[in-house]
Amino acid sequence: MNNRNFFQRLMLLGMFFAGAAVLVWLFTHGLPYFCPIRWIFGMECPACGMTRAVNALFHLHFLQAYQYHLLVFVVIIYTGLLSVFWLIGKERWMHTKWLWIVFITLFIIWWVVKAAAFFHGAYPSFYESRAIIPRLVRFIGQFL
Ligand SMILES: [Zn+2]
């Protein structure tokens, strides 16, 4: 890869991270955002809390970031690695299957842990009773 390509990619990467930072800031400072999975099915998705966790990292509140979403550090490491791969022209490494299998598996495990905590009464905010499906279930339940 020549220098021109490298600096083009560096600029694009900078724009990507600046855009992502602006979105995180907006969503955590008043711009309404609702997780569609949470507000349809009534339960958190595997990524719920990630925006708040990244925002906490912006403020160097590492413990709070961990509390919002444990995997925020994994996301940061992956994003850093993939950025470097892409920057040095090794996009091939981004398509390494096991990298994504590990990544997705970690999110699924974390989601199962949160669900288990909910069913043991330790994590009540996992469930959203005002979501569409729980409301429908209650509505239909009235007639049974
Ligand atoms: Zn979610």
Quick rundown:
This protein is mostly helical. It has seven helices and no strands.
Could you please describe the fold and organization of this structure?
With 144 residues, the protein is an all-alpha fold. The chain has one domain (3-141). It has helices at 3-28, 36-41, 50-58, 62-68, 72-87, 97-119, 132-141. Helix 3 (50-58) packs antiparallel against helix 4. The structure holds zinc ion. Zinc ion (ZN) is lined by residues 35, 37-38, 44-45, 47-48.
> Could you tell me which ligands this complex binds, including any ions or cofactors?
zinc ion
Strand count? 0
Count helical runs. 7
| β-sheet strand percentage | under 5%
Q: Which structural class do the helices and strands define? A: mainly alpha
| C-alpha termini separation | 67 Å
Main β-sheet: number of strands, strand sense, barrel status? none
Poorly predicted residue ranges? none
Approximate helicity band:
55-70%
Mean pLDDT: 91
Shape: elongated
Could you outline the blueprint of secondary structure elements for this entry?
Elements: H1 3-28, H2 36-41, H3 50-58, H4 62-68, H5 72-87, H6 97-119, H7 132-141
Summary keywords:
7 helices, mainly alpha, binds zinc ion, 144 residues
